[in-house]
């Protein structure tokens, strides 16, 4: 992600900081279908918006192309934030829901969008207009469609003008060269440290030009039609469920399948997990409509299985650990124990030094969990960590400088960073190994319970598969 940075040195430097911060906060960042993004030409990316500033940051660092985002104007109220936004050519949107905003300024923002697109650049828009905690897309605003249609007509007009003076047809913007691409963002947890994030580059839409009216605006019918296409494309790239209860049911059902694959040794891709969630959501919706009684019975069985797991003190993933060859798992465990033992001094030092920054970053994230009317998600935690972690390294170097010379103090900075990273990875490895050890202990002491849970899971998987095939 670091090497995808474009533009000035300052821009690339900030890009690198954002990349490192995201990679440290998320245990896994998975990008799907980014290779289908056109290497040149005007593109409008439309995204869902579940996680505040993290959403644009993830798309920003995952693209090879230079992209300008549209963001709420209130982010410019902070001088430091305004500097960063201008560095990355982020354009302000003056929303009705924000206090004391002049919405007439959006005309200037639209003109800037037209100019960027007519130059073959990319912009990114959150058409829901707000960052939220809802389990489904919020109503799509028409701004993305209006910008696309206005820019396309501008391209056509510019093309006509160039035809009169320029014989090089390669320079003439093609009327239908503007594309709209849906981008779906999915998080296993929006706020938990070392959770996982999936960026799905989805359907590509062609934008056909339309004649503008006397006010230089596209016809309302064309705007609404394109907005509907954008909404359909975004729904295909995202997970949409009506309520938290429905989401919980689908997550539990999917966990029955993923637990077969996810364990100490192997993790299935987030894309496979997401596709299964989408499929289960659609099937569950049909089952709820056609046979609500069967739906309730299935949910009760899944809840019973979950309760049995909790009472036994293990997770679904741990049931699958010992299905691997014992020699392979044993060798894996021994190697990890040896590695953890060798790295223990670095891990302990790193944990002690970085604990205050980790604690205060999480505290700030819990306190500042909203921004205006938007859900901040993990934005506050990550921003706090970007500030507090370097401060931690400088404080450690200052303490060493007090007792030793400046060369040792300077050398201590990369060593401190290394210790922090070793502490992070060691703690994760310990958690993973605990799953294996608990599974082995259960198998040795309560083999009957272990086997009953495996059979119960298999039966539930079969029943869910039958429901899916039936529908």
Total number of domains: 3
How many β-strand stretches? Answer: 9
Question: What is the level-2 CATH architecture name of the largest domain?
Answer: 3-Layer(aba) Sandwich
Q: Please state how the strands of the largest beta sheet are arranged side by side.
A: 1-7-6-2-5-3-4
Let me know the CATH homologous superfamily of the largest domain.
Answer: Glycerol-3-phosphate (1)-acyltransferase
Would you give an account of this structure?
The strands form two sheets. This protein has a seven-stranded mixed sheet with strand order 1-7-6-2-5-3-4, sandwiched between helices. Strands 8-9 form a two-stranded antiparallel sheet. It has 14 helices and nine strands. With 471 residues, it is α/β, with parallel strands linked by helices. It has three domains: 2-237, 3-Layer(aba) Sandwich (Glycerol-3-phosphate (1)-acyltransferase); 247-317, no CATH class; 326-452, no CATH class. The two termini are 42 Å apart. The protein has helices at 9-25, 54-62, 79-87, 106-118, 143-165, 220-237, 244-261, 270-290, 292-312, 318-321, 326-367, 379-403, 406-445, 447-470; strands spanning 26-32, 43-47, 67-72, 91-93, 122-125, 179-187, 195-206, 370-371, 374-375. The protein is flat, with a radius of gyration of 26 Å. Helix 4 packs across helix 5 (143-165), helix 11 packs across helix 12 (379-403) and helix 11 (326-367) packs across helix 13. The model is unreliable at 160-175 (pLDDT under 50).
